[in-house]
Amino acid sequence: MVHMHITSWILGLILFFAAYFLHTGGNARVSKILHMILRVFYILIIVTGVWILLSLSNINAEYIIKGLAGLWLIASMEMILVRLKKNKPVRSFWIQLIIALVLVLLLGWRLPLGVLHM
Fold it and tell me: Would you state the pLDDT for residue 58?
């Protein structure tokens, strides 16, 4: 399940950047399609994350913080794409995305179920 979660995150980030750059490049129709596919990946990411969290025998605060940071990251990604379509400023959400991404990656590598412990 951890591999599925990590793969979903990687594909989600790729879809996010593809949708962002397609929209800023003027191809809003394809961007909208990718955004809808990305929303399916949000669900997959959340479901696999909750599944992993519930399967742990020793849940500590770091796992909870990583889960909340992951939700924050998903919310930032979604807000960037939605506000971009409405031609509203997205700078604050980019800052939030970077902070949440760094936090998720650092905790992901540090925790026992992280990438370095597989």
Answer: 83
User: Which of 3, 1, 10 minimizes the C-alpha distance to 104?
Assistant: 10
How confident is the model over 72-108, as pLDDT tens digits? 999 999 999 999 999 999 999 999 999 999 999 998 8
Q: Show the tokens assigned to 5.
A: 């979660």
Q: What is the mean pLDDT of the chain?
A: 92
CB-facing half-sphere around the CA of 44: CA atoms within 13 A:
18
List Cβ neighbours of 37 (8 Å cut-off, separation of 6 or more).
Answer: 15
Per-residue pLDDT for 50 more than 90?
yes
Query: CB-hemisphere CA count at 13 Å for 114?
Result: 14
How many domains, the chain? 1
Dihedral angle computed from the Cα positions of residues 61, 63, 64 and 68, in that order, rounded to the nearest 10 degrees: 140
At 18, the amino acid letter reads A
| Residues of the domain holding 45 | 2-117
